[in-house]
Amino acid sequence: MPAPHSPEFRRRALDLVAQGEPVARTARDLGISETTLRNWMNRDAIDSGAKSGLTTDERRELVELRRRLRVLEMENEILKRASAYFARENVLPK
Predict the structure, then answer these.
(1) Domain boundaries, the chain
(2) pTM of the shown model
(3) What does the pLDDT read at residue 89?
(4) Which residues have CB under 8 Å from 89's CB, separation 6+?
(5) Which residues form a coiled coil (predicted)?
């Protein structure tokens, strides 16, 4: 996977397109694919509120919350199993 481009590089590419440069030529001149540049344009439109969707910060938060949920579910499952194990051990014979 190629190394990600810096935010300054992305901003410069978006500024060139905003100034009226064609997307295909801008992408070729910067050595990136046209699809990559269009994805950056789409992400910038969402982040600026011009287009609906999850912003970069919201997407990052969602990923973090899903990760935390998985950890909590695993911890809960471990506690359930431990509780069942110790409950069986504490049963007195009749």
Answers:
(1) 1-53, 54-94
(2) 0.71
(3) 77
(4) none
(5) 55-82
